[in-house]
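Predict the assembly for these three chains.
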Amino acid sequence: METILDVRNITKSFNGLKVLQNASFAVQTGTVAAFFGENGSGKTTLFHIISGFIKADGGDLYYKNTPISHPTPVSVARLGIGRVWQNPRICKNLSVLDNLLLASRNHPGERLLNYFVRPGQILAAEKSKKSRAEEIAGETALDGKLGQAAGELSFGQQKLLSIGMLLMNEASLLLLDEPFAGVNAKMIDHISEVMASLKKQGKTIMMIEHNRAKASSISDTQFFLLKGEIMQKNDVYS
Amino acid sequence: MTLVNTGAWYTMNTIFLQLAFNGLVSGLLLALLAAGFNLIFNTTRVFHIAHGSFYVGGAYAFYAILQLFSNQSLFFVLLSAFAALLIVMLFASMIEALIYQPLARKKSGQAITLISSMGVYLFMINGIALLFGNETKILELPLGGSIFLANVAIAPIQLVQLAVSLIFLGGVLFISKTKWFLGVRAMMSNESVASVLGVNTTMIRLLAISIGSALAAIAAILTLYDTGVDPQAGMAITLSSAVAVIIGGSLSLRGTILASVVIALLQTATAWFLSSQWKEGMTFVLLILVFFWRTEGIVSYKMRVEEQ
Amino acid sequence: MNYLLHILVMAEIYIILGLAMNLLAGYSGLLSVSQAAFYGIGAYAAALLLVNTGYSFPIVLVGAIVINMIACIPVIAFSIRFRDLFFVLATLAWQVIIFTVLYNWVSVTNGPYGISGIPKPVIFGYQFESLPQFALLAGALCALVLLFFYGLHNSPLSRYFQGVRDDQLTMLSFGKKPGYYKAIAISISSGVSAIAGTLFACYYSYIDPTSFTMDESILIISIVLIGGLGTLRGSVAGALFYVLLPEVLRFVNVPDAFASNLRMMIYALILILMVMFRPYGFFGNYRFE
């Protein structure tokens, strides 16, 4: 099996307080990895570092065996690492369809120059991205809601939408921050179904979760964060 | 202030001293205004564009009341100043109670309160122009000519400005160091905590906005005896004091006062070496430099990530 | 009749300015206070080109637009890192600096005396001399601008502007740079404002810096806020409302000396009431929070 993300000796402290200490682990392509730990154990900080929103004090990140030298949110996203926030971040005044289209990767309409040079390509892309968005809406059970403003969706649906947006963005490594928090039991099953189908498509998922039972049942690897250090489940028992 | 341009002592050194003194005096006046802006901004989170209109309002109220009396002895001047301050505080409280307070209750963000403040500014400035006309109002201080100290010309009004602004700035600084104020400020940063702890935020907001506006009115009355005040002066006043608050670090009152003096020195030097019309532009060039110098610190997305 | 046409020309100019502002405030969520600066640079660029070079109107118009888009590069440079209050401050700085330059750069702008003798537009030998002709020309340009914004509204680009407005972090985490779209929005807004500036300069055949003050910027902001953010008809309605308001005052016989002040007071009052009780304005689909 191939390693998609290799994290080596990541260290981070805020105001002298060590949040992560020599965190090292690897995630294999096509697996689901769950991260557990108390509040303040550094899980979210770890996700922030991987997705480029916070700079680590030391350590290296390797994505598909190439080092990410200066991770920024934009460069990391362009590599194919996507992120769903704990409180889903969507554009609440835009429709569901527009949110999906907004996230789509390499839409020629996102560059100003293309409007002058290849307007035809933009129209064609708009059409094909639209049908892809409809497909994804089907996968994430948002099909009836394409025209609705994203802000009017329920909390769980907003989480599904942000997963859908990652798919539009063609992310291959998905970082989900507490996908099951704050949603009802039905929606939890729903989201885990979506995650299972993503895994089948060959996507890799890293998730932070407090619901340990649920997360253990759908994950292949489990990591525990304790005072900024990372242990894999097998290490705990051995 | 004009420089007396005769005699052998007219040297670069003297000009430098004179500019420094003039800058210091107008810096302290600006500090009064900026301290008011700071007080309002930190208590209510309203970016108070209308601050300048209270400045103009204070000057015109004082002018109008003083005209009612036949003589302008110190007693009547103080009486008029007192009345003008009361009027300004009353108006400020009305604005707070009718506009800012309801908006705050609706949890409106800074953009909304800023826009409503623009509305207040337009309303007040045009109201003042309607009542009193657009021309500059100016008063003469019946205190004789300038005195000279180490070849620096000091006008009597400058001494008054120096003394009054030092007294009031000292008062504000003193209050801001009291335990009571620090406690209130800590709680104001989180309004729900404050109301749980039984702090009357409504009252404190009212107090802050009326004291802040009164400080602006004091500066306006002092300027009335110097270069005069016209309705259009309001915006320049708001802008300079806002820049002083931002440059000084928006939480620190001492920073605001220091920044005010720096800005006034820059403006005085600009007026002398270029022309007084460049003053505002220079203030904002300074602001932009501060934006670049402080780089990421102010509102970068990184800070907001950590709030998540 | 002439008076009605004058109102029409003013409405056309303010519709253009309102639409330019709406792109920033309504679509991109950027409360720009430098719209009057854009407007002023456009007016001065057109006036100077017309007076000094004698180029024909279409060339001058395009020239003014291009000059405006170049002239907004500094404000882009120091404002795109920000939004909210600090964006306001950055654009405010630009507004004040531009006004100072227009006022003091006497050798080019003639300072407080302004530029006079700006010729009326001539297009391919046809002179737009009389008021009806000018109103027609302004109407045509206004319609073009409306058409342009209608196209922009329906293009994918508008989605990215709205993404910047709703959530910049989302944009970043999908690999889109918010700054890029802010820069585009600001330069389009600046370029479109140049059209209004050109019309203004030709219409009055005299300009001076006092038409492009901070107060004018506030006025343009209030036009789009009262009309409603995020829709084209909102900006049009806001501009019409602003231009037609003095006509109402006419009926109540306000002396001319008070008219302009009274009009601004009523207008400011309406702005405050709108912000408090009708935050979407007449036709808005977005509001500041």
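Strands of chain A lie at 3-14, 17-28, 32-37, 58-63, 66-67, 81-84, 173-177, 204-208, 221-226, 229-232. The longest strand of chain A covers residues 3-14.
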